[in-house]
User: Which sequence fits this backbone?
């Protein structure tokens, strides 16, 4: 069953301030680039309690994007202060309730959970100096806030910001009818499945520990991120790594890069029953 998510361009500008709502839910997201901060402060949403995320992608590609997660009642004063005191951010995501039901305890709970999720995903550099402690809330409030939390993560995901998506996850055994592509280079064997719109390098795949001479710095950083995450570990065999968790990738080439340690044309490297992925996609 599908889900309706509505986006409204408040300035009639796709690069300006926009709101996002999920059908039959009270959550309302307001997203805006930094130059539209004053526009946001004039809106009703700024006067409500809520949680927010401010984000900045650094010029130095060697560094992870920065993120700060906070809460406010109302959110306006906190966001306004960040416009003066924090230089790194370029975009803001503010989440409030259309019925103004969120309590101070609930938004503190949301803030803490979002900080924990960002830490676990290891996608960004968190600007939060102090870790927000998880407040005690009732069982009913926790269930309600959990729905709000999942809605926030869904909206962020739909907007194509992977703040809360883990680099890898616990392995899921292939189904009996699942197509598993293979990429063999030297003694290394990668196995890949296509799941939920991602090209998933499966746990058990082996990869070259060494990079090819032509490997760029971006390729080295990309592969190293999975070693730091613990998804790729030394197999015990000389020059070999093994995936101990499933690794979702945005493209078949990204999955192939992990295996071979260099640039690779994924659509023609991955094969199933003697045919390349590219050939299967044409059928």
Assistant:
């Amino acid at each position: 069953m599908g889900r309706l998510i509505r986006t409204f361009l408040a300035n009639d500008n796709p690069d300006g301030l926009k709101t996002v709502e999920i059908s039959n839910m009270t959550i309302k997201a307001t997203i805006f680039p930094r130059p539209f901060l004053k526009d946001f402060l004039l809106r009703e949403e700024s006067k409500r309690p809520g949680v927010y995320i401010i984000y900045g992608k650094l010029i130095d590609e060697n560094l992870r994007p920065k993120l700060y997660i906070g809460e406010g009642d109302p959110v306006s004063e906190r966001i306004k202060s960040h416009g003066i005191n924090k230089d790194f951010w370029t975009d803001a995501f503010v989440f409030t309730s259309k019925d103004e039901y969120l309590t101070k305890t609930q938004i503190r709970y949301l803030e803490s959970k979002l900080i924990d999720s960002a830490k676990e995903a290891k996608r960004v550099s968190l600007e939060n100096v102090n870790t927000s402690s998880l407040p005690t809330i009732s069982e009913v409030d926790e269930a309600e806030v959990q729905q709000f939390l999942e809605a926030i993560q869904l909206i962020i995901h739909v907007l194509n910001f992977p703040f809360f998506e883990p680099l890898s996850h616990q392995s899921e055994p292939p189904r009996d009818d699942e197509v598993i592509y293979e990429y063999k280079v030297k003694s290394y064997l990668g196995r890949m499945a296509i799941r939920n719109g991602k090209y998933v390098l499966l746990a058990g795949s082996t990869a070259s520990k060494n990079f090819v001479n032509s490997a760029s710095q971006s390729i080295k950083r990309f592969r190293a991120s999975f070693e730091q995450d613990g998804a790729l570990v030394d197999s015990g065999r000389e020059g070999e790594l093994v995936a101990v968790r499933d690794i979702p990738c945005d493209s078949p080439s990204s999955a192939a890069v992990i295996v071979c340690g260099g640039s690779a044309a994924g659509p023609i490297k991955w094969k199933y029953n003697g045919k390349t992925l590219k050939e299967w996609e044409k059928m």
